[in-house]
């Protein structure tokens, strides 16, 4: 890897929980994962387990598995979702305060 130059970046990195991670900078480097070689940026953080989407997309096998996970997420149309929620939790759609008995919000 030699001594790559650390470049400034204003990229915002979040972990899987959605918490932001401090990024000290980025550097361009060659990447090899599972025998697949590519180039990309490595973001320098205090953690050693950071792997970005750019790296995952650069590896065909990992990209395939990521696409499979994404393909499994299906969103129902809002009208269907609303009806399902009304059937499952009818008390939340009733008029009045319902379970909220301590405070009342007025506009």
From TrEMBL:
Q: Can you tell which superkingdom this protein's organism belongs to?
A: Eukaryota
Q: What is this protein called?
A: Uncharacterized protein
Q: Which organism is it from?
A: Teladorsagia circumcincta
